[in-house]
């Protein structure tokens, strides 16, 4: 057993994102160290628009963040997934919120610099949105994005989402008031576009 490579570790719950070897897998508290290392590699880019970079700053906060999503998964109120390429965690997608009774969810994403421009977030988002619509009965998936975050807005467009509006100066981020765009796709639209 000592020389066994444990092939199930890489495959457990993995979903292929295409021919380039990228995979989508659940992110769990036991992966806190790997998640923190990923945050360190991507902190500057991720932190431009996403508060995750300010939340995950050490091993304890990394574990606590992933544990909060484990609790959301257990109560069916959210999910978090990592994107791996060549065995390395390079980004992720999540349902920040899920309300099964109302059939709504808010999706989001992040990437470290090495993974930008490869379509990983779009592919991963398609997988989780399809799951939410078809398996969990979600009717409306929202995408909340800083109006200054052009790459994330481009993902919303590629996913076939509609811009519902802009919440002007609706949140304070790093000392500055920011506009938040709300994009969405409804289940019937999703089914006809995918």
Automatic annotation (TrEMBL):
Any one GO molecular-function label of the UniProt entry: protein-N-terminal-alanine acetyltransferase activity
UniProt cross-references to InterPro entries, sorted A to Z: Acyl_CoA_acyltransferase, GNAT_dom, Ribosomal_N-acetyltransferase
All copies of domain N-acetyltransferase, residue ranges: 22-179
A cellular-component GO term for this protein: cytoplasm
Keyword flag Transferase: yes
Pfam families: Acetyltransf_3
Keywords, ordered alphabetically: Transferase
Name of the protein this chain belongs to: Putative acetyltransferase
Source species of the chain: Streptomyces himastatinicus ATCC 53653
């Amino acid at each position: 057993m000592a020389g066994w490579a444990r092939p199930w570790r890489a495959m457990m719950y993995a979903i292929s994102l295409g021919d380039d070897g990228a995979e989508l897998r659940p992110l769990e508290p036991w992966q806190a160290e790997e998640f923190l290392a990923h945050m360190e590699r991507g902190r500057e880019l991720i932190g431009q628009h996403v508060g995750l970079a300010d939340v995950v700053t050490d091993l304890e906060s990394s574990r606590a963040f992933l544990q909060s999503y484990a609790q959301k998964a257990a109560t069916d109120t959210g999910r978090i997934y990592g994107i791996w390429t060549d065995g390395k965690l390079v980004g992720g997608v999540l349902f920040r919120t899920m309300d099964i009774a109302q059939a709504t969810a808010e999706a989001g994403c992040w990437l470290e610099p090495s993974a930008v421009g490869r379509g990983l977030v779009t592919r991963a988002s398609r997988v989780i949105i399809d799951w939410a619509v078809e398996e969990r009965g979600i009717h409306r998936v929202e995408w909340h994005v800083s109006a200054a975050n052009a790459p994330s807005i481009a993902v919303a467009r590629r996913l076939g989402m509609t811009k519902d509006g802009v919440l002007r100066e609706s949140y304070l981020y790093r000392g500055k008031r920011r506009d938040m765009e709300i994009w969405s796709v409804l289940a019937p639209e999703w089914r006809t576009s995918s």
